[in-house]
Write a structure and sequence with these properties.
Radius of gyration: 14 Å
Structural class: alpha/beta
Order of helices and strands: EHEHEEEHEEEEE
Oligomer: single chain
CATH class: Alpha Beta
Largest sheet: 5 strands, mixed
Strand order of the largest sheet: 3-2-1-9-10
CATH topology: Purple Acid Phosphatase, chain A, domain 2
Strand content: 35-45%
Mean pLDDT: 96
Number of domains: 1
Number of helices: 3
Distance between the termini: 21 Å
Length: 154
């Protein structure tokens, strides 16, 4: 199973559409906030894909949750925008929340800095910001052999 992970599109619906089109085999799109409006609008163009969305600190008026849990491909994923966990100042609170939920994968945005890591059984990914000419997004492949995370430029 391939999962497309995006965040911080900040009204750049074009970049969001491009990322989805560049990953045609992705069955699921997870948007980590600060772009909830365009994500909700664009999902109707891709009815074959599952869209999972949370709100970010710039998604004023959104009724989306600030965090969610989902199990995909047998892996438990905890995802949030990250501002409620102060991820700009460190990952301890977010990783502890993920571990408390017995997550295999933690996804967050907010910082606009792409990163991926593996720490004591927990995969950690921030896909960075999809907005702008240097936009980035993440891919997670879950197979029988395990989990692979990748960061790509738009």
């Amino acid at each position: 199973m391939r999962i497309l992970v995006v965040s911080d599109t900040h009204r750049d619906a074009y970049a969001l559409r491009e990322a989805i089109l560049k990953q045609p085999t992705a069955e699921v799109v997870i948007h980590l906030g600060d772009g909830a409006e365009e994500a909700q609008e664009i999902k109707d163009s891709f009815p074959e894909k599952m869209f999972l969305l949370v709100r970010g600190n710039c998604d004023w008026g959104s009724t989306l949750p600030v965090e969610e849990d989902v199990t995909l491909g047998g892996k438990h994923i905890f995802f949030t925008h990250g501002y409620t966990y102060n991820v700009k100042y460190g990952l301890y609170t977010a990783t502890e929340a993920a571990r408390g939920r017995k997550a295999d994968i933690l996804l967050f945005g907010h910082t606009h800095y792409a990163m991926t890591d593996y720490e004591d059984g927990l995969y950690i990914m921030n896909p960075g910001s999809l907005n702008g000419s240097r936009g980035t997004y993440g891919i997670i492949d879950i197979t029988n052999q395990g989990v692979v995370t990748n960061l790509l430029k738009i």
